[in-house]
Amino acid sequence: MAGKVIILSAPSGSGKSTIINAVMSTGRLNLRFSVSATNRVPRGAEKNGIDYHFLATEDFRNLVENDKFLEYEEVYPGRYYGTLKSEIKRISDEGADVIMDIDVNGALRVKEKLGSDALAVFILPPSIDELRNRLEARATDSAESIDARIERAKYEIAQADKFDITIVNDNLQQAIEETESAINAYLNADI
Ligand code: 5GP
Fold this sequence. Notes:
Blueprint: E1 5-9, H1 16-25, E2 31-33, E3 37-38, E4 53-54, H2 57-65, E5 69-76, E6 79-84, H3 85-93, E7 97-101, H4 104-114, E8 118-124, H5 128-138, H6 143-157, E9 165-168, H7 172-188
Bound molecules: guanosine-5'-monophosphate.
Residues 12, 36, 40, 71, 73, 75, 81-83, 101-103, 106 line the site of guanosine-5'-monophosphate.
C-alpha cells in the first residue's frame, strides 16, 4: 500500500545520501524523496527544489507560523531544516511511498506521529574517526563546520537504539542491500 513513510537518519557523512540514492535508483521500490526546506546555503552541486528547498530565514519562519511543517528542527545553531506537509501530500497523491532524510530529533518526532505508518532507520558510521575522515575528504565544509558536525554526530549516535532498525555502513554495498531489504520487508509486511 502506498503512503508509508521511510525515515532515514544518520550523522552527516555516514553515507546516508549515497544509500538513499542507490536504494531509489534500483526502481524496485516505489519511493519518492521528500525534499526538505532549509535556511542553509547550497553546498557543492546542490540544486534548489531537488536537494532542498533553500529558503531565506524569514520565509522559513513564515512557513513555521503558518503550520506548513510536519516537523522542523534547528539542527545546527541558526540552521533550520523541516519537512513540509505539502511534500508528503504530493508524494501520497502520486501513489508512492515517502523516503526522508532528516535529523534524529525530527525522525523520532515523525515516528511518534505516524507510528506503524513509518519505519525509522538509523545508519551508523563505523566510528567517529572514520566519520571525520569522510567529512574531511568531502571537502565541502569548513573546519569549524566539521567540528560542529562531529559533536552533533556523537549526540545522534547516542539515540540510535530508539529507531526501528540500525544499519552499520562499514561496507557501502552491504549497507545499501540491508537498507533496501529492510524497507522492502516493511512495505510488504501485512500491518
Ligand atoms: P545537511 O546540512 O548535511 O544537508 O543536513 C544536516 C542535517 O539536517 C542532516 O542530519 C539531515 O538529515 C538533517 N535534515 C535535513 N532535512 C531535514 C528535515 O526536514 N528535518 C529535520 N529535522 N532534519 C533534516
